[in-house]
Amino acid sequence: MRTVGVEEELLLVDPVTGEPKALSAAVLAHADRDDPGQDVFEKELFGQMLEFATHPRSDMADLGNEIVRCRKEAARLAGEIGCAVAALATSPLPVSPSVSVNDRYQWMAEQYGIATRDQLVCGCHVHVSVASDEEGVAVLDRLRPWLAVLAALSANSPFWQGQDTGYAGYRSRMWDRWPSAGPSEPFGTAERYHRRVRDMVATGVILDEGMVYFDARLSANYPTVEIRVADVCLRSGTAVLIAALARALVDTAARDWRAGRPAPDHNVNVLRLAAWKAARCGLEQDLLDPTTMRPRPAARVLRTLREHVGDALTRTGDTDLVDKALAELLRRGTGAREQRRMWERTGNLRDVVTECVQQSQG
């Protein structure tokens, strides 16, 4: 069974005002004091962010338990220095991001200017194991139409700099300002994939392979496909749903490749429109159906996704988990919908953040 690992980026906030706090270095110092050499928590581009990574897991319940443990440990460490953590993909309140002290991050700030300073966004990256680079590239070519649906499911960034953006997942609109971000054309072979990456690095516009920000890519460090389209999810259960669907999509794509079924030929222009639609609407309105690239109600698109990966979910034993989580998400709404309900009820974005701090723990 394929293993799955999750990386989540969390927002560090003042527990009273809800404003982001640039205290990641202090949190990491506390983490290293408690567990010298720990490799769970990491520095990110901005001091207001804290990242953690799970171990590779084959069982979704184990993965969910680890995500909850990591979130609670992050909250404990943050609490010791007077701040809190929130699983928010953008800050609802205004913020002036502080670039972390790091040669790589300083290079990015100088290279990209305001586009770097506007990147205080928190994502969720899912790693799914593959047998080889050839299998991985075959998977990447076949995942492309489905990634926007995962983005819609995870939408958790309706606010930006104190304003309602009108989007469910505004994080992706900011993220796509990186020159290497977004969907890719089919690669066909691993050799072509690696050649394209080398050509991109050779331009000097990006620093190295780690800055190839395709929506899905081969990991430079692990034998995995890394799916990078999701917002960090308000609730840990939604992150597990995204992970289970990601594994099922990878497994389905790999089997299609081995069976000789061709990759879909949707072009990048249409995929960008699908991604925009997912960011704008989440699950509230139509999405573009990955099989036709025509608008259909979000619930019907989710049924299409569920049918597409049905056999893979059966093989992994994740059918009940996914069905229950999808039903609950459709009933409750995305993180973006929950944030807007909080705002409608309280009329105060500070209260939205403090409520989200509590929701992030479960």
From TrEMBL:
<dbReference type="InterPro" id="IPR006336">
    <property type="entry name" value="GCS2"/>
</dbReference>
<comment type="similarity">
    <text>Belongs to the glutamate--cysteine ligase type 2 family. YbdK subfamily.</text>
</comment>
<dbReference type="Pfam" id="PF04107">
    <property type="entry name" value="GCS2"/>
</dbReference>
<keyword id="KW-0067">ATP-binding</keyword>
<dbReference type="GO" id="GO:0005524">
    <property type="term" value="F:ATP binding"/>
</dbReference>
<comment type="function">
    <text>ATP-dependent carboxylate-amine ligase which exhibits weak glutamate--cysteine ligase activity.</text>
</comment>
<dbReference type="InterPro" id="IPR011793">
    <property type="entry name" value="YbdK"/>
</dbReference>
<protein>
    <recommendedName>
        <fullName>Putative glutamate--cysteine ligase 2</fullName>
        <ecNumber>6.3.2.2</ecNumber>
    </recommendedName>
</protein>
<dbReference type="InterPro" id="IPR050141">
    <property type="entry name" value="GCL_type2/YbdK_subfam"/>
</dbReference>
<dbReference type="GO" id="GO:0004357">
    <property type="term" value="F:glutamate-cysteine ligase activity"/>
</dbReference>
<keyword id="KW-0547">Nucleotide-binding</keyword>
<dbReference type="InterPro" id="IPR014746">
    <property type="entry name" value="Gln_synth/guanido_kin_cat_dom"/>
</dbReference>
<dbReference type="GO" id="GO:0042398">
    <property type="term" value="P:modified amino acid biosynthetic process"/>
</dbReference>
<keyword id="KW-0436">Ligase</keyword>
